[in-house]
Amino acid sequence: MTRKLVVLSLLCIGLILPALASAFLMLQLTLPQMTALSEKVFIGKCFSIRKSQDRDGQPIQWVTFAVEEMLKGEPADQITFKQLGDSSSQDNVIIAGEHVHVPRYVEGEEAIIFLSEEGNNHFTAPVGLYQGKFQITTSKTGEKLVLNGMNNQGLFVGWNKNQKLKGMTLSGAESKLMRTKEGGLPLEGFATLVKKLAATE
Amino acid sequence: MIKKFSLGVLLLVFISAELKAIGPRSVTSGGTAVKWSSMPVTVHLETDLIVNRGTATKDVTTLVNNALDTWTSLTDSDVSITRGTLSTAVDDSNVCNYFYDASACPDTSKITDGTNPLVIDEDGGIVCKFFCNLGASARYTTLGFASIVSSDATTGAAVKGEAVFNASCLNGVEVIPDCTTRNLSFSDNDFTSFIVHEMGHFLGLDHSQVNLTEATDHDTSNDNLINTMFPTFIVGNGANFKIPKRDDKVGLAQLYPKSTFTSSTWNIDGTVYKADGTQLQCANVIARNISDPKVDAISALSGDFSPANTVNGTFHILGLTAGVSYTITVEPLGSGLTGASGFTPCRGTNGESSPPSFTSFTTSGSFSKSAGATLNLTCTIGGTCTEGPGGSGGSSGSGGTGGLGGCSLLPRTGP
Question: Chain A contacts of B17, Cβ < 8 Å?
Fold first, then answer.
C-alpha cells in the first residue's frame, strides 16, 4: 500500500515518467519466410473499412477485401480481418509502450496481403507489418507492379542458398525477380512465385 | 475516484513524455538523454537460462554473458553491469510480476520495484503477450524488445529498464515445426546479437543507419558492415551483427563517455537546411573516413535532441579520429523504418513525422580537425555544404574543393 502511494505520488508530481520509448528488433523477412508465416496470401481490392475501438480505447478496423486471386489458403470471394489501427491516421496504435506503425488501407486500393494467423483477441495484420502488404500499381508502360513498405528490400536475401527456391523450376520472369534488389516487382511473376512457394509447404 | 485520478495523471504524463521523448531513444524536455545515471547498472536475470524443447536443452548463460560483456568492454565508453537475479524463472504467466507495460503489464507499482529484469523467452510466449495483437506471426518476427521504461522527468536518469530476448527459434531447441519449416531457425550468434541489440536499447541507444545499402541488398558478403543498432535483422547475420560497429560504439560513448573521449576526438556541430532555407529534421548525416568509408562511419540524425515535428536541423557527430579526414553524406532514412523499428523523432507515429524524402549527397571535399576541436558545418538539401563560422581548432580541408569552406555536392544514388 505504501509503495503504491509513493509511486502514485511520484507520478502525480511528474518526477518519474513511464517511457514510450521501447524498441523491438524485427525480423527482416525474405519472401519464402513471409509466405511460410502467412495463413493466407491474396490479391484483392479493399472495399470496406469499418472502424471501432477496443476496451482500452485502441482503434480497431475491420478491413474487407474482394479477393481477386488466392495465392495461399482456402479459396474465398472476400476476406475480412480485424486489425488494430485507424487507416485515416497512423498515429494511434500502442504495443509494448510504443506507437507502432501498422499498415493502412484505402477503399478501392488493390494490394497483395500476406495475412498472419489471428493472434490475441482475434487480431491479425500483415506478416511483418509493412513488409507484408504490397500495393499494386500500374507503371507508365501499363505493367502492374507490387511494392511493400520497405521498398521490397531484402525479399530475396540469400535466395541462391535457399533450398526451397533452389529446388524449384522457375520461369525467366521469376528468376529475374530474385536478382532485383529493391523497387517495384512485376505482379505476374511475383504472384506465381508466391504460389510455388506456398505449394512447397 | 482515486483510480480515475491516477489514470488521468498517467495520461497527462504520457502526453508530456511524448512532447519530450526524442533523442538517443528518448530525451527529457530539457534535451537531456534518458540513460542510467550511475554505474554499475544492476540487471536482474531470470533463473532459468536453460532453454528446453522436448528432450533437447541449451544453456544460454554464456551467450547472455557474452552479450552483456560486449557493451561493457568498449574502450570509449564507461559502462559496467552487475548481474542480479529475479530468483525465479519467468514466462508469459508471471512476466507481469516484474515488467511494466501500459497494456500488457499495467501495474504501475512495477515502475519502481527496483528490478531491471532480463528474460529469455523460450517459446515466444512473452513476446506474443505483448505483440500478438499484431497477429500470431509476431511471436516469431519479433526477436526481442527492451527499453528504459521509466526515468526521472528532469534529469533523464533511468529508474527501470527491462528486456526480453526471443529464443523460440534457437537452433537445437527451436519450436518445431514452426521454425524449421519456415526457415526461421537462428544460430547462437544470431541469438547473442539480439541480446546485444536489445541491451543497446536497455542502455538508452536508439536505432541508427550507416550502411543502408549493405543492410538491405542481396549480398551476404558485406553484411559485416551492418551496424548493431540497425532496426531489422537478417537471419544468419548474427556473427556480424553482434559486434558493435564504429557508429554503435560512438553512440554509447555519447551517453557514457570515458573521461578522455571528448578531448581525444573531434566533433561536428552542424545544421541541415531545406532548399527554402528552413531547417530539416530527420536527415541522416554520416561522417565517413576517406580511407575506410564503410567501417569508420559515424552518423547522427538532424534534430534528434528536439521535439518531433519541430523545425530543427541541428546535428552533432562525435568521436571523429583526430587528424583523419571525413566526407559528409546527408541521406534520407530507409523507407519502412518507422514506428518501433524507426528512429526517434522520425518514426511516423506518435506525432512524429515520417522520415523526409530527398536526394542524398556526399561532399566531394573532406574535413579534418585536431583532437578536442569542433567543426561547424552547414548543409543544404540540393545545394551546398559549407564550414560555418565558429569552427575551432586546427581544421584542414582536402579533396578538390580546396580549403576549409569547400564542401561541394556529389549526387549519389538514393538508398
Answer: 17-20
